TrEMBL record:
Belongs to the two pore domain potassium channel (TC 1.A.1.7) family. Residues 46-116, 168-238 form the Potassium channel domain. GO terms for cellular component: vacuolar membrane. This is Potassium channel domain-containing protein. GO terms for biological process: monoatomic ion transmembrane transport. Keywords: Ion channel, Ion transport, Membrane, Transmembrane, Transmembrane helix, Transport. It comes from the Eukaryota. It is a multi-pass membrane protein. Gene3D superfamilies: 1.10.287.70. It comes from Cinchona calisaya.
Length: 261
């Protein structure tokens, strides 16, 4: 490990293959990696506890919830999922003071968890920016060939992640349409309409999962598809960051070479 001054990011020398030759050069590591941050595991635990506590609570109060029901505990889990994802079809509605107050608690709890996901995404983007600063600081002392340095940015990986999320989301959409058509007996237009309103968390409520098998499917599909859409937006931002990153590196290298010459 190397640190040349207190304000400089920690650097670690790692072997990397570049232009057919193995070289060792410093790779920036985020200075925030030892600071407190919201981890993916913490968010996953929060979501699990939210669903578990909510399901048990609403199961005991299921007789105070009106709407089309299929299975007591299954409906409770389904109700928690459509609440935390803010879909809210309206097929299951609190019908007493106790359930309404409990729903308010879980609505704000779900919003808090979604907020944690947003904070985690912000942490990730901040770390990407801090890594860029580290690259620029290394650049001032060690880069000779500008093209060599620019090629180190793995923009193809970022684009690959974006394409992967798009494909995964399209697969989820197709699976959702087929399921709604075959199990919920919707025509393809209504199924596509239901899928779009669900993934976007609009949840108009005119088309929804109403069978027992449909709600089992919805518990997993709604949660995965809404999170996939959020990851897609994050990857779009990351692609933009990588583009600006590459432009900045090219500008710094060009300016440095101009000053040297």
């Amino acid at each position: 490990m190397l640190r040349k001054c207190k304000s400089e990011p920690l650097l670690e020398y790692l072997p990397e293959e570049l232009n057919g030759n193995y070289i060792s050069h410093p790779q920036p590591i985020s200075i925030f990696h030892k600071l407190h941050r919201i981890s993916t595991l913490s968010i996953s635990i929060c979501i699990f506890l939210y669903i578990a506590i909510g399901s048990i609570s609403f199961h005991f109060l299921s007789h105070q919830i009106k709407g089309k029901k299929t299975n007591g505990f299954l409906d409770s889990i389904y109700f928690c999922i459509v609440t935390i994802t803010t879909v809210g079809y309206g097929d299951l509605v609190p019908n007493s003071v106790a359930t309404k107050l409990l729903s308010c608690v879980f609505i704000f709890s779900g919003m808090a968890i979604i907020g944690l996901l947003g904070i985690r995404g912000a942490d990730y983007l901040i770390e990407k920016q801090e890594m860029l600063l580290g690259q620029a600081m290394i650049l001032q002392e060690e880069v000779i060939n500008p093209q060599q340095f620019v090629n180190e940015f793995k923009t193809r990986i970022v684009w690959y992640k974006l394409v992967r999320e798009i494909i995964f989301l399209l697969v989820l959409i197709v699976v959702g349409i087929i399921f709604l058509n075959r199990v919920e007996k919707m025509d393809f237009v209504d199924a596509f309409y239901c899928v779009c309103s669900t993934i976007s968390t609009l949840g108009y409520g005119d088309e929804r999962f109403s069978t027992k098998a449909g709600r089992v499917f919805a518990i997993f599909w709604i949660l995965i598809s809404t999170l996939c859409l959020a990851r897609l937006f994050l990857n779009v931002v990351e692609v933009r960051i990588e583009k600006r990153r590459k432009e900045l590196v090219t500008w710094i290298v060009t300016k440095r070479l101009w000053l040297i010459s």
